[in-house]
Queue: 4 jobs
Job 1
Amino acid sequence: MRIAMIGGGYVGLVSGACFAEFGTEVVIVEADQDKLAALRAGAIPIYEPGLDKIVSANVAAGRLSFTDALDSAIDTVDAVFIAVGTPTRRGDGHADLTYVYEATRQIARHARKGLLVVTKSTVPVGTGREVARILREERPDLSFSVASNPEFLREGNAIGDFMRPDRVIIGIDDTATDGGANARALMHQLYRPLYLIETPIVMTGLETAELTKYAANAFLAMKVTFINEMADLCEKVGGNIHDVARGMGLDQRIGRKFLHAGPGYGGSCFPKDTRALTAIARDAGTPSLLVEATVAINEARKAAMAERVIALCEGTVKGKTIAILGLTFKPDTDDMREASSLPLIQRLIEEGATIQAFDPEGMKPARPLLPESVIYANSAQEAATGADALVVLTEWNEFRAIAPAKLKAAMRGAVIADFRNIWDPTTLRAAGFTYRSIGRP
Ligand code: UDX
């Protein structure tokens, strides 16, 4: 079997490389010449543990290749996946589908009979149906199969998530002339290795698959937001959010994952998908008040993190040096999209602070997004040197191992805001710090 993946970005590259690892021949179509040249030279433009190995092994095995020639790629494949970007459209919160529909028209131009077209990007409900309509409009002479196959990849964990997923969601267009039989057969063949390890595969309709993706992400965002609210409540009434989360999570109906209180969720998916879902639901005349509240609470939370730091610094950060450990929206990624560090650092600088930041992977992508005055350190220890206060924003493992005494010796002041609860309050206080974490006494 041979497939084309349109888009060599995060989703396209990971999915393409993993399908190749499953034994399928994959050609990734990337229009950006710089990105294409990098990929062809064996350079992986994103930080994702394990991806470089899978890419190089499959390129060497002749199962994975890169091109900018969509026409010749489409000519030779059984299925084509659309994995282009769907950013938030300015103004209304909807996903911008320009790239998806442009790719669809290009595919139609070069397609042959029976081609299966699959949307992999996260797209609003109704997009798969529109893709099918465009294909038929462009090529009334051909029969097409259309499917929706949303991804559930976590950055930093994407390879494992693809190879051993909790489930696979496949939406099939059953209005195709064959009732969707070709699509079903091809998708089955593509995911054969997962059938062998008994991964649940949910075969459903196009709209259901599209909605499932949004519903899953919005639910997870809501779960995080809920525990964040409970953490704030713990701080006011007395309580330990760690134990509340554990106590709640042991109920199997709730589950223990995604109950870590923090500085608000960020990243490329949750903020974008929750906003898109609220727009979809409003348009449909059934607003999702829960998701709308989640979006608003999370925005307010990110903005409020600076106030916590200022309060800890006795009401002002003017003239003070603040060390920031962690810039990315979560560990094991270099992704800065919608990271809590962005509004926090901006605000602290406006309030007159000097920022010394360190992140193991995120400093290069952070530079264009943060004020020029930010000083980038070569290590956590260097960032802490001479600082009046220190803020932990991303729970990189290497930060957990830092010895409090060494920090204390390096810093000028003794204030720590640990927004990821990576350190033990008793130990830090014993070391002489004024220590505040999230939702813990
Ligand atoms: C997410 C989904 O998990 C994935 O299924 C989807 O396809 C894409 O979006 P990702 O954005 O990589 O993946 O990150 P994730 O690990 O889910 O974390 C999202 C955000 O929530 C991060 O900012 C993280 O710090 C925050 N988070 C997560 C918490 O604050 N607490 C938690 O308990 C979990």
Job 2
Amino acid sequence: ITAQTSPPTERSEALFTRARTVTPGGVNSPVRAFKSVGGTPRFIREAHGAYLTDADGTRFIDYIGSWGPMILGHDHPAVREAISDALQYGTSFGAPGEREVELAELVTRLTHTDKVRFTSSGTEATMSALRLARGFTGRKLIVKFRGNYHGHADGLLVEAGSGLMTNLDGGLGAAAPSSAGVPEEYAALTLVSEYNDPQGLDTLMAERGAEVAAVIFEPVVGNAGVLIPTPEFLEALHRVQNAGALLIADEVMTGFRLSLNGATGRLGLRPDLICWGKIIGGGLPVGAYGGRAEVMDFVSPQGPVYQAGTLSGNPLAMAAGLATLRTLEADPDLYTRLETYTTRLSDGLKTLAAEAGVPVSVNQIGSMLTPFFQDAPHGSVRSYTDAARSDTRAFAAWFQGLLSRGIYWAPSQFESIFVSAAHTGVELDATLQAVRAALADLNGT
Ligand code: PMP
């Protein structure tokens, strides 16, 4: 084993300095700044297959996959060809086109929904789905779960996960905005319950159910790290439908990732509305929400709930989404391969952490995985409160150990990683070798 010398970061450092002058924190989305793990964020020059290359020319095995969209790997030939084909015909029409119809047909067929509306981001999808639920039910309140993240619309920045987990003060009780600039009056319309706490949800619904327009949830959480729902919690979620509230599955992360029909298909859910993003756009900006016709027909111009977008249904984005979903559908073993790879990574992590005597509790489902740096049985981390017990300093040190060895893990304890179809045994072996070394670093050996 050769001594570890960290790859150069001069160009990333220089870019970060310039970026901070002209962009808040130097980044266009907070987690990219490496705030919770420290060090210089790597500015990425290019991405192919399972690899990222940074501005200094260092190649990394990529485990964030642009935070989910790149399920086929970066620069997949089918997606690249579809985009360049679409490019010949113009980049935006501001009028409907055939690709929107094709993608809507494909999405509704794969997800057993009647109708879908495309947006340009996951945030717009969840924000719009909630407006629709309020318009449809004539009710005001929404319920979300602590540490779940549904994008950055005002009413959803309440006890939110993802980049906000590092900001939460840990106080339970009244719903607190997770961001400055969100009026308490908005936050007061969002009730918060604990994930995987069926009694808590039942109690909340018993008290306020008649005022609740929608309960929105991550069917598998990625934004507090991976949290997997219990069957009892899923039953309690479906009970909210008896109170006349719409159940909204936020599948922005899990859609087309945990199966061709997302977590909904994998876990047998019956939501009223589903939100998508990420994979549905194949790496270009797309979100969507859909459900049964009776509800979706409330959306403008058919119904009274307004929602719009200059670039919604953008032809390049539709082309990338179509190519991605068609490739997924054409390869029935793909999800099994992703899961096999991720299970091996998960098993390797468990074994290596045990050997190194580093307390780690692993949650994994399909191609999503989080090692929580805490002393708890594997699979036992089930809520925000559980996740928050993790040793974020140990995680940060481990993350840096991986990064310096060419493994680009998610730069926060409270995120999932995403394995792609481009990850093979070669990447798995290299990753586990780096994991072993990074764990050894933690012990100072
Ligand atoms: N919902 C979930 C579950 C997400 O994971 C995300 C983004 N990570 C969003 C919504 C917001 O999507 P976007 O970043 O595209 O606005």
Job 3
Amino acid sequence: MTDSPEIIEVDRDRLWSSLEQLARIGAYDDEDAGTVGVRRLALTDEDLAGRRLVLEWFEDAGLSVRYDRMGNVYARRPGLDDRLAPVRIGSHLDTVITGGRFDGALGVLGGLEVVRALNDAGVTTQRPLEIVIFTDEEGVRFETVTLGSSVAAGRIPLEQARALTDRDGVTVGEELDRHGFTDGDPVPAPEPYAYLECHIEQGPVLAAEELQVGLVTGIFAITWKEVVFTGVAAHAGTTPYELRHNAGLAAALVTVALHEMVRSGRYGDMRATAGRVEQQPNATNVVPGSALMTIDMRCSDAGHMAAAQEALDDAIHRAAEEAKVAVSVRVTARTPPVEFDPEVRTALAKSASNLGLSSREMISGAAHDAGEMAAVGPAGMVFVPGLHDGISHNAREWSTPEACADGVAVLLRAACELAGT
Ligand code: GLV
Ligand code: MN
Ligand code: MN
Ligand code: MN
């Protein structure tokens, strides 16, 4: 029996300073946001530079590092009984194009801080601990969300992930080979005893209610579609309306249909977004000849998602008919709603209450690696509040040293309870 977790303290300033140092890698000036953001798209040189810095910290903390063929990194702290399944703590280091410094990084560096705090206290847990960096959580570059963790969970085969391409035609496989991940262990790695993730909320609720942490009950189901309308580029002044094949019109009709679906209330807590619309030739005096749009739909209920998918497919085909264009549709991501494990949730809730932190339960509208991990073992998450109305996927994403340390303190206690001290 070693020291009780009561006396193990998170070092708030060390955690904050690590977040700051990592944020310098991929830092960019965001003129619209009026501040500096972070851009480390998955498997780019910036993403790998970020990992290299964190790997140095892992090694300094005495962790032994291995990676799998998807480039997911597992940094291990042995347990007193090292044959036991590990407790894993993880998240991602890749960001969206307009990223902040907390989304993902807090989960990984929070895991590192758990290890550093245990090292300082001289405490070894019964079970090993593993800090995980999942490859490409954001799905921005290769258009599939939580890619690395879905391969680790066995939901997407490695070969299918390797074949995905970015907009320049570069494949995931080429990037994994370029960065030397091809020599990694086979995936998936063995199932953990439990998986924990600390993440910035990415929404306004905790700050508005002046709460210190969020206890996450589950994650919305997600469907992503890529829709391509193909019409005929033609003169905007001379082409009679009834002779047009206007691909841009079809995309616009689908955007409006999505809005009406959500506003109808028929699909529960559904949120729908047409985040990317690219029409060609994109000129004032030319009827759009083609339009590519991506659609992101999320809600908490599988039945509502199934009904919304049907309604969306109908809307897409009606739009194509109305605009007299051809259409092709591809599903690029589909994840079921996630419910986190009751025991892991209890461990996190107990940690928060023992620390005297105010909290509430909440569901996540954002995807997380914990969602994929929930399919292979007990998993749970804790959220910390963000400032600026919780804005995220924006350079203005922000939190405070106290808030981050609170979330990681919850992580530390729950990890000690689950791994045994
Ligand atoms: C990624 O963070 C997502 O929720 O799409
Ligand atoms: Mn994230
Ligand atoms: Mn994100
Ligand atoms: Mn994400």
Job 4
Amino acid sequence: RAAPQEARPLEGRRVLVTSGPTHEPIDPVRYLANRSSGRQGHAIAEAAARAGAVVTLVSGPVTLPDPAGVAVVRVETAREMLTAVEAALPADIAIFAAAVADWRPESEATTKKIKKDGSGPAPLALAENPDILATIAHRSEGRPGLVVGFAAETDSVIDHARAKIARKGCDLIVANDVSAEGAVMGGADNTVHLIGRDGAVESWPKAAKDEVARRLVARFGEMVAGS
Ligand code: CTP
Ligand code: CA
């Protein structure tokens, strides 16, 4: 008897996922970044591929292996991530799980290492990076049918996520509590809350990031079914 077929609710769908941190160079040896392992985003890309989707994963610098069955585009900075995301469209579903650096050093990194000269540290002027999720969600043409954002919060998780969904123009926010007690960043487990456009909240029990990924992918499949 044949083994039971895995459910493939995303058969033939095009899915784009961003994952990992971005690195914003200060000089050839230093950068600005944030704590993100890429585990949740990579797990979502892999789960989407297993569900039958054609998946492009745009990933910042991570130490994870490439997920099976996924086309991976590696980038370093937020601006490179935006360019790679635009090149990967169109997509039916776009999931923005990357922890993009909000700011980058204002002056282009020189090829020379900045040296201590005894007069104290040079001030580091910052410029704001493009908001990749908002840019894609607010597109009038070629907007993916389902745009999902993530929100990493340390406090007032639901309130912040509700404000974010309105500001970003996405269809769904997956919020997670990254306060120290949660140990989410870099950890194997995640506790997520799904916030819809109408503000409705669905809180899921803590689970392994792989399991959260499978459940999220099943949900995204339901949301695009029939479209
Ligand atoms: N995001 C993005 N590009 C950015 C910043 C964020 O695509 N430059 C995306 C993230 O991938 C995530 C969502 O926006 O899906 C929310 O990111 P978050 O950092 O929580 O939101 P911000 O608007 O940057 O707000 P803040 O960091 O001040 O909480
Ligand atoms: Ca941010």
